[in-house]
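DM from R.C. (forwarded with permission)

"hey, sorry to bug you on a friday — could you get me a structure for this? deadline for the figure draft is monday and I only need the backbone to look sensible"
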Amino acid sequence: MMRKIALLSVLFISTIFSSGCGPTLQITSPTFLPEGVIAHIDSGGEAVTAIEGFSPDGTRLLCRTSENTSVFDSATGREIMSVPGVAVQPIRHGKALVYEPYKITLLDFAGEQVEEVFHTYRGSAAFLFPTTALSDDGRMATVGSRDASRLWDTTTGRIVWKLPRIGGLLCFSPDGKTLASVIKPNTICIWDVQTGQKVRTIRHERDNVVKPPRIYRLRFSADGKAIVICENWRLPTPPGYRGRVRIMTYGATVYNIHGKKLLQTTGRPIVSGDRKRLLVPDESGRKFIVYNFSTGQKDSEIPANCNSPLAVAPDGNLVAQVQTSPTQIAKSSRYILRFWDTTTAKLIQEIPISDAPGWACAAISGDGKTAAVQDGRRIRILDVETGKMLLEMQGMGGRKGGTGQVVFSPDGSKSAIRFGSASAVINLTPLR
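My reply, with the result:
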């Protein structure tokens, strides 16, 4: 017993003062950690501002600092490579597009390679950020400037086609054969990637809206047969209102690839990671409606609070939310973490969290076995099946811990945690 207490003391002290690379994460749970479980991310004294994700095999971690995009070894936390700029595209197959003024770089952080995709001189293009897109397999990248749009084959480095500017927001289909672009507030064009020819034009309309909504996101479904338009617009100003704050509302519209409208809803949509489901808050604010992305058909209803964060597993089969329990399942736990199956809308698990408010579910692992919750001061990693707390961590060096972020590896065996100004990678396998 005394030996275990001594080991815990050594772990506590070494966790606070390890590596000398700035703030670290403090272990506050009484769980004894085996050696090699935690690896603090060493970014050379520069704080990590965002965790972008893991490589497909989980051995590399892509993070964003104040000025650079860096790749770390997830086992040791050592920085492997760093390039100037900000990662602006979702990570697909271990590749990401990194943006800096007048330059777009393709970063293959799984293979530890950097390739300059596009460069333009000052004055010819002032803003490239919204006109870049990367296909799911990382083989095609489109980069737009003020005067033209170019499709690059990232494997050969050659330009496949160059056309007059085809639009702002861009999105590839999962198979990489189709490209969608927003050319006007109410017009979406579908392009053939190989030929650069326009296949179809979709005239987007929303009922009871005076001005065309602002489209802020495009997404293809997993089978490429449908596309969702995420949009927002300002509500009419009430009579006699003189304030400067304008009320915004959100919505989503789903079209099939032929331009037929399948679904139109009000409320900020959530697209599952596998792009097979669409979760939309109901007007009552008391439930989320789950739709089939490809068909627009309603699948189920989840009795969750639309004003609280909802975590969705990458495959879309599991959702979780921290809720107040009217009938406490534990004497000291007023707040409960609940899990639902999105296919059947069945409640499958309840885990007591705390009697203190402020908790929210941050993430669910890809295998659905682990979840993370946070309250602004602490982050807890939980086993979904048993409800056991695997780990509790507290940020150091940030103001009251700061805002936390948890990202799981594709297989769910590791989690990257950013809390305050400290970051680390946790190996979850020995803790289960």
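R.C.: lifesaver. Residues 1-79+308-432 form one domain.
me: no worries. The first strand starts at residue 25 and ends at 27.
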